[in-house]
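User: quick one, fold this
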Amino acid sequence: MKKLKMLMWFLLIGFAGYSDANAASWYVDKDATGSNIGTSWANAWTSFSSINWGGDGVAPGDTVYISGGPTSKTYNATLTVGKSGSAGNPIAIRTGQDTGHTGTVIIDGQNSLIYGINVPYSYVTVSGEYNGSINLEVKNIVENAIRSRGVTGNKFLYMNIHDIGNRTSCSSYAVTISGRLNELAYSYIHDVSREGSVLDHDTTLALSGFGEAGSYHHNTTENIPEDHIMINQGWDVYNNTFDQYRNSTTVPGCAGSYTDLIHSLGGTHRVYNNNFLIRNVEGGGNAMVFMEVFGVWGNGRPVYRSNIQIYNNLFHHTDPNYSGSRNIQGVMLKWHDSNADAYGYTNTWDNVYVYNNTFVDHPYGPLLTNNFPAGMQPRHWEIKNNIFVNSGTRSGASGNAIVIENGNYSASDVVINGNVINAGAAGGAGISFRGSRYATPAAYNSAFGRNNRGCMPSFISYSPGTYAGRNLRLQPSDSCALNFGLPLNLVDSDLDGISRPKFDVWDIGAYESPTVDQKIPMPPTGIEIK
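Assistant:
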């Protein structure tokens, strides 16, 4: 019996490793001079169109390596993947990892290719990673640097994507992905003529779980005239830097363009650990995070528009006196329509949690609702442990940090508690709630029995309107937000990954007090490209 158990154990190990043991490596090098059958660098395929996706070619679990030469190598063609991997055995497309082939792979569309990377199949990973750095550049594409629609389990990692849309095309999205369980990560997306990324869900399904559509994380975006990302239900967005630094000389954008850093058309999102920054806004926009929830999606399918979690984010603006024609809010929660959603709700919006964010220098409202219909019923909303400083600085902005429109709800349905709200140098500290304005946190507390604070936090480094050197962590000597937070089950760490609470009591804002001074992540002036 003992020998039989051992035999079964070895058989299980053998079967578990079967796919990996039989996975093949394939090679693409446009300068290869051998037999060009893809089996080695010497015999590599010389073009993307030469890749054999047939029965004796690339199979699930295989890896296709693309040579970047010793420093870089340019391919003026679309990389189109012609086969699906499988769950647990994806097809991988990687930049070269061997000496002589680890330079940057450049896909240059020369402003004539419609797509840079086209993946119409599922379970495919395309990665430009080499030693933890970006080694894949996609540029000068007319419409999409990445196009992957109606797919499951695809990953796009470590890419430098720029100059998309001929600088004038109004149909260009740097990235467009739809389906389930997809991922876009560790990439730098910039200088795009219209949208950064359009990330949809599987429109045949009403996704009710966090991350069911996919995840967008550890990316940096800048110089994008419209939405940095547009998402539908079921996407998680975390650990990104969204830097709205606009240079209209290099990227003119389209007529009427305006910017939301995140524009969502549904619910079921977690948005956390991000750095949202408005510097040069040009025509303005709706909000840094614009949750415009629909009841019914374009194909007539009801969607889940409840369940939104926004926590551990920085929201800051470098021009508190901004006077553009369009508003730039921090977070806008907009009810789009009263069609029955996937829950059957027509005027009920459930489970919205805004926790431990830091908002500074907003010329309009940092946090507000929009388009509430008569009888609107927000339920299970909590706005807790946030810092609001220098809010509503523009003339006519009313100096409100929080605006929750009138509706059929009470202070127990929408709980605003444990926040720091300070007028700062030129703003206000008001809360507008159910049609009444409370000019100070103390006035709101008195009306509803809450414990919001009106003091000024002692940040490590902060000057209104100035981003350089800004550090919105709390000084160890702070007596305003340090150790004054409410305990929350949802958030167990801060923007730095420090556990909450670090000591005995929670801190207010995006950062739990560290034991040593640190700097916040700054948007890059460039990104390391090997």
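User: anything notable?
Assistant: The two ends are 56 Å apart (CA to CA).
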